[in-house]
Design goal:
The chain has about 500 residues and is an alpha/beta fold. The chain folds into 2 domains: about 220 residues, YjeF N-terminal domain (Rossmann fold, 3-Layer(aba) Sandwich); about 250 residues, UDP-N-acetylmuramoyl-L-alanine:D-glutamate ligase, CATH 3.40.1190. The chain is built from 17 helices and 17 strands. A hairpin with a 4-residue loop joins strand 16 and strand 17.
Length: about 500
């Protein structure tokens, strides 16, 4: 995978790169527009080799200019096409230059939508709205978006699907549902997380001949609230970070993980967490749980040891024994749970916090160290930040950064396009599946993180690698068994394969 597919830039950073480029090219970026149009045209040919008819929907900004270049290439190639535009680009703009070039070749522009029964094209190019959109598309653009979606043609979005916020992934109104998004210069964060995941289709990145890597992490003087470098990671990127065992390895070398959780009626959460830790390679796993769960755990997961978390002496010994502690799955939020959390937070090593541990921390009653790893879903994140879940999801990247700044350590905000922040970088993990929309998935992830920590991965490595393995396992389980009805325990065999480098 090329470096280009790892680096992520906000729309403001992309505009800054374009300004640098313009300074070196007589004050303009028309060459980038030409390259963008060519890249879309080439992607159409490679993804739809049998296409015969293309409709281009062009806006009045630079995104529309890219569309006019595509139309000019279609015209020059003798390919059947139609171009629709509400308004011409602003006079003197580079988009206007592209429009005039298309017209000079004999191109024609239509300003009204056709009837849907006029027949539909093979391909639609969405060049209506670009990275500047920050709110719901207004009329009549929203009507054009709905029309594009009704055609059911193979839809190629230029840079971002019209209606997607390129920085947050938020979709506030009507939005083009693309089959392919051709992203220009570099990935935008909004294509990787949030609502946008349902609209982007396949995402490909085109450099347009610009090496954006020289700017990564250096555009810190912009008027932006968050200046941390953004990276994208997938399973293939973390294979080299996965634990490696020497031939002489024994169980004591592979990490001792203590899991604290499983109040009455919630023992399953602690068990799933333990399974995750074991399948991710932990040498020894001990579960501190309510005594009512111990017999079931010993019978159902004999590889894990157990201790009654009501036995203070036994629990203290377990904490002294462990290399890593994870607390939260099935913990409850009663007074006993508060005491257990306070004890876990006094642990000298890394502590993975999930579920009810996070809900208790949201009360503000606990002091935290930088050794913590927090793994909230949007609802838990909302309680930790004093927001609503919708507010958290509105800007997931900002929410993850706010959590890290408030609580320290490492934060993994779960969801479509999980966001990880350690205060120095932001990593977006593009793994996962709707098959994972069931209880216990977070418990499994907590166990995987703990196992990787016990096998000497750094906290950041362990968190990113676990998110990638967990998400890919969900994809594979959904692929093989079906999206609906997948259980957290269905993922464990895939976790084992993935930690051994087998996809």
């Amino acid at each position: 995978m090329s470096n280009l597919s790892h680096l992520v830039f906000t729309s403001a950073q992309i505009r800054a790169i374009e300004r640098f480029h313009a300074k070196e090219h007589d004050g303009h970026c028309f060459d980038l527009m030409e390259e963008a149009g060519k890249s879309v045209f080439n992607n159409i040919k490679s993804h739809c080799p049998d296409f015969h008819d293309v409709w281009v929907f062009a806006g009045s900004g630079n995104n529309g200019g890219d569309g006019y270049i595509v139309a000019a290439l279609l015209l020059d190639a003798g390919i059947s096409h139609r171009v629709f535009a509400l308004n011409k680009p602003h006079p003197g703009s580079e988009a206007a230059t592209a429009c005039e070039y298309f017209l000079s070749l004999g191109g024609k522009i239509e300003h009204a939508l056709p009837e849907i029964n006029d027949g539909c094209p093979d391909v639609i190019v969405d060049a209506l709205l670009g990275t500047g959109i920050k709110s719901a598309p207004r009329a009549p653009i929203d009507e054009w978006i709905l029309f594009i979606n009704r055609t059911r043609a193979y839809t190629v979005a230029v840079d971002v699907p019209s209606g997607v916020n390129a920085d947050t992934g938020t979709v506030e109104g009507d939005c083009v549902k693309a089959d392919l998004t051709v992203c220009m210069l570099a990935l935008k964060p909004g294509l990787l997380t949030g609502d946008a995941v349902d609209y982007t289709g396949e995402v490909t990145v085109e450099s347009l001949g610009v090496d954006v890597s020289v700017f990564h992490g250096k555009l810190t003087d912009l008027d932006e609230e968050i200046h941390l470098p953004l990276l994208r990671r997938s399973y293939e990127d973390i294979i080299d970070d996965l634990p490696h065992r020497e031939k002489t390895a024994n169980k004591g070398d592979c990490g001792k993980v203590l899991i604290i959780g499983g109040a009455k009626g919630m023992g399953g959460a602690a068990r799933i967490c333990a399974q995750g830790a074991l399948r991710a390679g932990a040498g020894l796993v001990k579960v501190a749980t309510d005594s009512v769960n111990i017999n079931a755990l010993n019978a159902g997961l004999p590889e894990a040891m157990t201790v009654d978390f009501n036995d203070e002496e036994a629990l203290s010994k377990a904490l002294s024994w462990a290399d890593v502690t994870a607390i939260g799955p099935g913990l409850s939020q009663n007074e006993k749970a508060r005491k257990l959390l306070e004890l876990a937070l006094s642990f000298d090593g890394p502590v993975v916090l999930d579920a009810d541990a996070l809900n208790l921390i949201a009360t503000g009653e606990f002091s935290l160290s930088d050794k913590i790893i927090m793994t909230p879903h949007p609802g838990e994140a909302a309680r930790l930040l004093g927001l609503t879940a919708d507010e958290v999801n509105y800007d997931r990247i900002k929410s993850a950064v706010m959590l890290q700044r408030k609580y320290g350590g490492i934060v993994l905000l779960k969801g479509a396009g999980s966001v990880i922040c350690d205060g120095k970088r932001i990593t977006i993990v593009q793994e996962g599946s709707p098959a994972m929309a069931s209880g216990g998935m977070g418990d499994l992830l907590t166990g995987i993180i703990a196992a990787f920590l016990g096998q000497d991965l750094t906290p950041k490595q362990a968190t990113v690698a676990a998110a990638c393995v967990h998400g890919r396992a969900g994809e594979l389980a959904g692929r093989d068994g079906g999206i609906v009805g997948t259980l957290a325990t269905d993922l464990t065999s895939y976790v084992r394969a993935l930690v051994n480098g087998r996809n």
